[in-house]
Amino acid sequence: MPENVLYVAGATGYIGREVVKRALKRGYTVHASVRLNSRTVLPQNDRLKLDIIQTEQDKTAFNIPMGASVISCISSRTGTAKDAHNIDYKMNMALLNCARASDANVFLMLSAICVQKPKLAFQHTKLKFEDALQTSGLKYSIVRPTAYFKSLTGQIKRVEKNLPFLFFGDGTQTACTPISKRDLAEFMLNTVQKPASWNKILPIGGPQPALTPADMAAIISKIYNKPSATRSVSPKIFDVLRTLIAPLRPISRWAREKSELMNIGKYYATESMLVWDEASGHYDAKRTPSTGQDTFYDHVLKMRETGSVETVDNDTRLF
């Protein structure tokens, strides 16, 4: 089997781009599925072969080389029910069917640690595909990362403007061990090469210790040399907003999607991104595996030094 051939789906996303970049550095020949208007975000390299998706029908036909290892970084942007079904499940199923037809070496799915306590449509959808992958007959790995750095730095611009850092409750009720895109990509590529990591669900975070929103506020304020001003927001704000638009849900797709986004917002405001210990009924930082060297502190420091601010998409950010 061609151990040096990799097929990456979702290759132009936040993690997908990093996987492609790191795989090329390791000497892989990389086949990457891309939309026609997104192909320029990937590096030019003789070992990078683009599988261009031009139409909706193309999304069900992935040109996977025989025996290649497959990495799926496919994920919906909004997390709404329709988006999740079409992207997280249907597109991943199409990829899985093509992987089976191509006798793929191993199929790695990039999932999310939040599916441990599923309450949201997209979480149930991810779990539905996880089940399909585990019973597919292919060798697989399911990687469930904690929070990404970019999802935690959206308030830097607020701090730069001397505006208070917003957090829910007292800022200590949730925690995570955030992971950089580089460390996550390296972990995924190591997993593809390591048979001992196959046929397993692998939660993974960055370096310990776990950080609360209050910790992150203090780090950002220190690095940007701004007052440690914070403001508490009640998570109940999501309930209030959802109640206000509830009368429109039966007749408005917009209202249904906004309601789901309110559910997503409250989930992330009240749940930690750590391994859930079912026996104790608590999240456990000590049981959350760690990898890499990139810390949140170093990431924020680098952003200060370079003048860049890396954040999530405007339509999915909380602040």
> Which of globular, elongated, flat, extended, rod-shaped describes the shape?
globular
Strand order of the largest sheet: 3-2-1-4-5-6-8
The fourth-level CATH homologous superfamily of the domain at 5-148 and 180-204 is NAD(P)-binding Rossmann-like Domain
Round the mean pLDDT to the nearest integer and report it: 91
Q: Under CATH, the topology of the domain at 5-148 and 180-204 is which? A: Rossmann fold
The residue ranges in which pLDDT falls below 50 over 5 or more consecutive positions are: 313-319
Order of helices and strands: EHEEEHEHEHEHEHEHHEEH
Work out the radius of gyration: 20 Å
Euclidean distance between termini CA atoms: 47 Å
Approximately what portion of the residues adopt beta-strand conformation? Answer: 15-25%
Largest sheet, strands/sense/barrel: 7 strands, parallel
CATH class of the domain at 5-148 and 180-204: Alpha Beta
In the CATH classification, which architecture of the domain at 5-148 and 180-204 applies? 3-Layer(aba) Sandwich
The level of helicity is 25-40%
Structural class: alpha/beta
Number of strands: 11
How large is the count of helical segments? 9
